């Protein structure tokens, strides 16, 4: 550790969750009505536990979003709108990664390349800087880092251990050896251990195997991960190999992690294209875990696993079938803000 800043775990107290409202100029245009229903349900769920900050492209969109939320009886005292330009709404990857040192905060603004140049992302790459000029946050500064990294690619236990997938980071930086990427991530994110997974993928995922679709910390000694128990499924061997990798990992004290395998949803197709329905893409908020639900019988089993992994939190299902049409899910469209970060007023 080179300074007092620390990368907090998601289960630590939060001041708010940051999202961006979808509109007709985003990739959601073709199925905007469906995804708006998910956003209304998501905001309703978040505001039961903490505030939400919603980026909107213009005043008309704010007026519309506010009307939708009011009609759903959302507690609008916990909703704050901010104007911003964005190409799309995946704020896990375009929003700020925040470190804290007491009541001081540092937002890391990594380069966003549209997941390795797959999509246009010029406005998304400017989002952190745009938000920094709004008096939205308290006692913080922004550190710009010329290195492609998305928030969904890294997972921390809040105590100096980082979990990630080699496939994603290697795809972003094929010229760099693992040791160099490990050193850079550890330095920027204030970690002293980086654990790599070499296996794991989901059909329909275009992030090159983001860790937040595959495996998540549930405290410093536990990992929740997406399993596949269907030998006939194309994911069976790869996710089985990932499960073996996770089982071989050890905590800082040298003990195996307590493991919580999530059930496998039946294939969800968009025409002939399979969609990436992962239950690992949950969001932890104050007092609850918001879980993506896909209208599948496995939803109930996933909720039961998460209740066991997070026994002190309420498990709230949010319908996310509309999100996976665009290759992401609930965690991907959100970014939590640590407690004390949101400016008053």
TrEMBL record:
Pfam families: PAD_porph. The keyword Hydrolase applies. InterPro entries: Peptidyl-Arg-deiminase_porph (IPR007466). Keywords: Hydrolase. The keyword Ribonucleoprotein does not apply. Signal peptide: none annotated. This is Agmatine/peptidylarginine deiminase. It comes from Pseudoxanthomonas sacheonensis.
């Amino acid at each position: 550790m080179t300074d007092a800043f620390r990368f907090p775990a998601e289960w630590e107290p939060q001041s708010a969750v940051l999202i961006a409202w979808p509109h007709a100029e985003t990739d959601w245009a073709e199925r905007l009505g469906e995804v708006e229903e998910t956003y209304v349900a998501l905001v309703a769920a978040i505001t039961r536990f903490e505030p939400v900050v919603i980026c909107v492209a213009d005043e008309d969109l704010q007026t519309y979003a506010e009307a939708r939320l009011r009609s759903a009886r959302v507690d609008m005292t916990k909703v704050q709108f901010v104007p911003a330009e964005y190409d799309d709404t995946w704020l896990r990857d375009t929003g700020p990664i925040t470190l804290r040192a007491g009541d001081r905060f540092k937002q890391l603004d990594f380069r966003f390349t549209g997941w390795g140049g797959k999509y246009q992302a010029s406005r998304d790459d400017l989002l952190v800087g745009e938000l920094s000029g709004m008096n939205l946050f308290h006692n913080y500064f922004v550190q710009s880092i010329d290195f492609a990294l998305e928030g969904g690619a890294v997972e921390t236990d809040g105590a100096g251990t980082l979990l990630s997938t080699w496939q994603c980071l290697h795809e972003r930086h094929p010229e760099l050896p693992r040791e160099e990427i490990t050193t850079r991530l550890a330095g920027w994110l204030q970690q002293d251990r980086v654990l790599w997974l070499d296996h794991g993928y989901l059909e329909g995922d275009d992030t090159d195997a983001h860790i937040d679709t595959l495996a998540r910390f549930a405290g410093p000694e536990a990992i929740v991960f997406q399993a596949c128990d269907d030998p006939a499924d194309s994911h069976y061997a790869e996710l089985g190999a990932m499960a073996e990798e996770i089982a071989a990992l050890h905590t800082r004290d040298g003990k195996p992690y307590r493991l919580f395998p999530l059930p496998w949803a039946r294939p969800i197709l968009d025409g002939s294209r399979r969609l990436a329905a992962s239950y690992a893409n949950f969001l932890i908020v104050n007092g609850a875990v918001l879980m993506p639900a896909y209208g599948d019988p496995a939803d109930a089993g996933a909720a039961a696993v998460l209740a066991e992994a997070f026994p002190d939190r309420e498990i709230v299902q949010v319908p996310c079938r509309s999100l996976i049409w665009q290759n992401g899910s609930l965690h991907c469209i959100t970014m939590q803000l640590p407690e004390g970060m949101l400016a008053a007023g």
